[in-house]
What does this fold into?
Amino acid sequence: MGKKFINKGIVKVTDANVCEKLTEHLLGLLAREKEVTSRPLVFLCIGSDRYTGDALGPLIGTYLAENGVQNIYGNLDHPVHAGNLVEVTQTIFARYSNPLIVAVDACLGKTGEIGNIEAWAGGIEAGIAVGNRLPSVGNIAVIGVVNAGGQLGYLDLHSTPLAIVVKLSKVIGAAFLAVYDLFCLGEAAACRGTANWGKVRPT
It folds into this structure.
Protein backbone atom coordinates (compact mmCIF):
# COMPACT_ATOMS: atom_id res chain seq x y z
CA MET A 1 0.00 0.00 0.00
CA GLY A 2 1.04 3.58 -0.47
CA LYS A 3 2.77 2.87 -3.76
CA LYS A 4 3.06 5.88 -6.06
CA PHE A 5 2.02 5.30 -9.65
CA ILE A 6 3.68 7.39 -12.38
CA ASN A 7 1.46 8.75 -15.16
CA LYS A 8 -1.35 6.40 -14.21
CA GLY A 9 -4.39 6.27 -16.46
CA ILE A 10 -7.72 4.54 -15.80
CA VAL A 11 -10.43 3.60 -18.27
CA LYS A 12 -13.57 1.50 -17.89
CA VAL A 13 -14.18 -1.46 -20.17
CA THR A 14 -17.61 0.03 -20.96
CA ASP A 15 -16.30 3.52 -21.82
CA ALA A 16 -16.93 4.89 -25.29
CA ASN A 17 -13.78 4.58 -27.44
CA VAL A 18 -12.09 2.61 -24.66
CA CYS A 19 -9.54 1.03 -27.03
CA GLU A 20 -8.53 4.40 -28.43
CA LYS A 21 -8.15 5.88 -24.95
CA LEU A 22 -6.04 2.98 -23.70
CA THR A 23 -3.92 2.90 -26.86
CA GLU A 24 -3.15 6.61 -26.67
CA HIS A 25 -2.19 6.36 -23.02
CA LEU A 26 0.07 3.37 -23.67
CA LEU A 27 1.78 5.15 -26.56
CA GLY A 28 2.29 8.16 -24.31
CA LEU A 29 3.91 5.96 -21.67
CA LEU A 30 6.15 4.33 -24.29
CA ALA A 31 7.20 7.72 -25.63
CA ARG A 32 8.59 8.65 -22.20
CA GLU A 33 10.89 5.64 -22.07
CA LYS A 34 14.59 6.12 -22.80
CA GLU A 35 15.91 4.95 -26.18
CA VAL A 36 12.40 3.80 -27.01
CA THR A 37 13.00 3.45 -30.76
CA SER A 38 15.94 1.07 -30.37
CA ARG A 39 14.56 -1.28 -27.71
CA PRO A 40 12.69 -4.55 -28.41
CA LEU A 41 9.07 -4.43 -27.27
CA VAL A 42 8.09 -7.47 -25.18
CA PHE A 43 4.62 -8.34 -23.88
CA LEU A 44 4.61 -10.23 -20.57
CA CYS A 45 1.12 -11.64 -19.98
CA ILE A 46 0.91 -12.94 -16.43
CA GLY A 47 -1.69 -15.38 -15.13
CA SER A 48 -3.05 -18.90 -15.27
CA ASP A 49 -6.14 -20.64 -16.61
CA ARG A 50 -6.54 -22.54 -13.32
CA TYR A 51 -8.72 -19.71 -11.97
CA THR A 52 -11.21 -17.85 -14.15
CA GLY A 53 -10.17 -14.44 -12.87
CA ASP A 54 -6.49 -15.16 -13.35
CA ALA A 55 -6.89 -16.05 -17.05
CA LEU A 56 -6.78 -12.42 -18.23
CA GLY A 57 -3.07 -12.43 -19.09
CA PRO A 58 -3.07 -15.79 -20.92
CA LEU A 59 -6.14 -14.79 -22.94
CA ILE A 60 -4.40 -11.58 -24.03
CA GLY A 61 -1.20 -13.41 -24.89
CA THR A 62 -3.12 -15.95 -26.98
CA TYR A 63 -5.00 -13.19 -28.80
CA LEU A 64 -1.77 -11.37 -29.63
CA ALA A 65 -0.09 -14.54 -30.89
CA GLU A 66 -3.07 -15.33 -33.11
CA ASN A 67 -2.71 -11.86 -34.62
CA GLY A 68 0.97 -12.22 -35.46
CA VAL A 69 2.50 -10.25 -32.58
CA GLN A 70 6.08 -11.24 -31.73
CA ASN A 71 7.91 -11.32 -28.38
CA ILE A 72 5.01 -12.58 -26.26
CA TYR A 73 5.50 -14.43 -22.99
CA GLY A 74 2.41 -15.98 -21.42
CA ASN A 75 -0.57 -17.58 -23.18
CA LEU A 76 -3.11 -20.32 -22.54
CA ASP A 77 -0.73 -23.07 -23.65
CA HIS A 78 2.33 -21.69 -21.85
CA PRO A 79 1.21 -19.43 -18.97
CA VAL A 80 3.52 -17.24 -16.93
CA HIS A 81 2.55 -17.47 -13.27
CA ALA A 82 3.97 -17.34 -9.75
CA GLY A 83 5.86 -20.59 -10.25
CA ASN A 84 7.87 -19.51 -13.28
CA LEU A 85 7.72 -15.70 -13.41
CA VAL A 86 11.28 -15.22 -12.15
CA GLU A 87 12.64 -17.78 -14.61
CA VAL A 88 10.73 -16.25 -17.54
CA THR A 89 11.90 -12.77 -16.64
CA GLN A 90 15.50 -13.99 -16.59
CA THR A 91 14.95 -15.56 -20.02
CA ILE A 92 13.65 -12.27 -21.42
CA PHE A 93 16.70 -10.33 -20.24
CA ALA A 94 19.03 -13.03 -21.54
CA ARG A 95 17.35 -13.03 -24.95
CA TYR A 96 16.87 -9.31 -25.52
CA SER A 97 19.17 -6.35 -25.04
CA ASN A 98 17.51 -3.71 -22.85
CA PRO A 99 13.94 -4.92 -23.51
CA LEU A 100 10.95 -2.63 -23.11
CA ILE A 101 8.52 -4.84 -21.21
CA VAL A 102 4.78 -4.22 -21.11
CA ALA A 103 3.42 -6.42 -18.30
CA VAL A 104 -0.27 -7.21 -17.85
CA ASP A 105 -2.07 -9.06 -15.08
CA ALA A 106 -5.49 -9.46 -13.49
CA CYS A 107 -6.25 -7.58 -10.31
CA LEU A 108 -8.80 -7.62 -7.50
CA GLY A 109 -10.24 -4.29 -6.40
CA LYS A 110 -13.35 -2.72 -4.93
CA THR A 111 -16.80 -3.50 -6.28
CA GLY A 112 -17.02 -0.17 -8.09
CA GLU A 113 -13.64 -0.77 -9.75
CA ILE A 114 -14.60 -4.00 -11.50
CA GLY A 115 -14.05 -3.51 -15.23
CA ASN A 116 -11.38 -0.85 -14.74
CA ILE A 117 -8.20 -0.99 -16.82
CA GLU A 118 -5.24 0.82 -15.28
CA ALA A 119 -1.88 1.55 -16.89
CA TRP A 120 1.17 3.32 -15.53
CA ALA A 121 4.93 3.70 -15.93
CA GLY A 122 6.64 1.07 -13.82
CA GLY A 123 6.31 -2.58 -12.96
CA ILE A 124 3.65 -4.98 -11.76
CA GLU A 125 3.95 -6.75 -8.43
CA ALA A 126 2.18 -9.94 -9.43
CA GLY A 127 0.49 -12.21 -6.91
CA ILE A 128 -0.29 -9.64 -4.20
CA ALA A 129 -4.02 -10.39 -4.33
CA VAL A 130 -3.43 -14.03 -3.42
CA GLY A 131 -0.64 -13.50 -0.90
CA ASN A 132 2.37 -14.07 -3.17
CA ARG A 133 5.23 -11.58 -3.08
CA LEU A 134 7.02 -11.63 -6.42
CA PRO A 135 9.57 -9.20 -7.86
CA SER A 136 8.22 -6.17 -9.69
CA VAL A 137 8.38 -6.76 -13.45
CA GLY A 138 7.92 -4.54 -16.48
CA ASN A 139 8.60 -1.01 -17.64
CA ILE A 140 4.91 -0.36 -18.26
CA ALA A 141 2.17 -2.01 -16.22
CA VAL A 142 -1.41 -2.76 -17.22
CA ILE A 143 -3.97 -4.35 -14.94
CA GLY A 144 -7.60 -5.32 -15.40
CA VAL A 145 -9.83 -5.38 -12.33
CA VAL A 146 -11.74 -8.64 -12.71
CA ASN A 147 -13.49 -8.90 -9.35
CA ALA A 148 -13.83 -7.44 -5.88
CA GLY A 149 -11.17 -8.62 -3.48
CA GLY A 150 -11.73 -10.12 -0.06
CA GLN A 151 -9.53 -11.93 2.42
CA LEU A 152 -9.31 -15.08 0.29
CA GLY A 153 -7.91 -13.93 -3.05
CA TYR A 154 -7.89 -17.38 -4.64
CA LEU A 155 -11.62 -17.81 -4.02
CA ASP A 156 -12.35 -14.38 -5.47
CA LEU A 157 -10.38 -15.24 -8.61
CA HIS A 158 -12.02 -18.67 -8.79
CA SER A 159 -15.54 -17.18 -8.59
CA THR A 160 -14.93 -14.43 -11.15
CA PRO A 161 -17.44 -14.48 -14.04
CA LEU A 162 -15.76 -15.38 -17.32
CA ALA A 163 -17.69 -12.62 -19.14
CA ILE A 164 -15.81 -9.73 -17.50
CA VAL A 165 -12.44 -11.43 -18.05
CA VAL A 166 -13.16 -11.93 -21.76
CA LYS A 167 -14.37 -8.33 -22.17
CA LEU A 168 -11.24 -6.97 -20.52
CA SER A 169 -8.99 -9.27 -22.55
CA LYS A 170 -10.52 -8.10 -25.83
CA VAL A 171 -10.09 -4.43 -25.01
CA ILE A 172 -6.53 -4.76 -23.69
CA GLY A 173 -5.57 -7.15 -26.48
CA ALA A 174 -6.88 -4.77 -29.14
CA ALA A 175 -5.01 -1.85 -27.59
CA PHE A 176 -1.79 -3.89 -27.40
CA LEU A 177 -2.23 -4.88 -31.05
CA ALA A 178 -2.61 -1.23 -32.05
CA VAL A 179 0.47 -0.29 -30.01
CA TYR A 180 2.46 -3.11 -31.59
CA ASP A 181 1.34 -2.03 -35.06
CA LEU A 182 2.34 1.59 -34.53
CA PHE A 183 5.45 0.86 -32.48
CA CYS A 184 6.97 -2.04 -34.38
CA LEU A 185 5.98 -1.32 -37.97
CA GLY A 186 7.62 2.10 -37.93
CA GLU A 187 6.85 4.94 -40.28
CA ALA A 188 4.59 2.90 -42.56
CA ALA A 189 2.19 2.31 -39.71
CA ALA A 190 2.62 5.74 -38.15
CA CYS A 191 1.57 7.36 -41.41
CA ARG A 192 -1.94 6.09 -40.81
CA GLY A 193 -2.18 8.64 -38.03
CA THR A 194 -3.74 8.70 -34.60
CA ALA A 195 -7.25 8.81 -36.04
CA ASN A 196 -6.88 5.12 -36.84
CA TRP A 197 -6.00 4.03 -33.31
CA GLY A 198 -9.63 3.89 -32.28
CA LYS A 199 -10.48 1.64 -35.22
CA VAL A 200 -8.80 -1.28 -33.48
CA ARG A 201 -11.63 -2.44 -31.27
CA PRO A 202 -12.83 -5.68 -29.67
CA THR A 203 -14.42 -8.21 -32.01
Q: What stands out?
A: The CA atoms of residues 53 and 160 lie 5 Å apart.
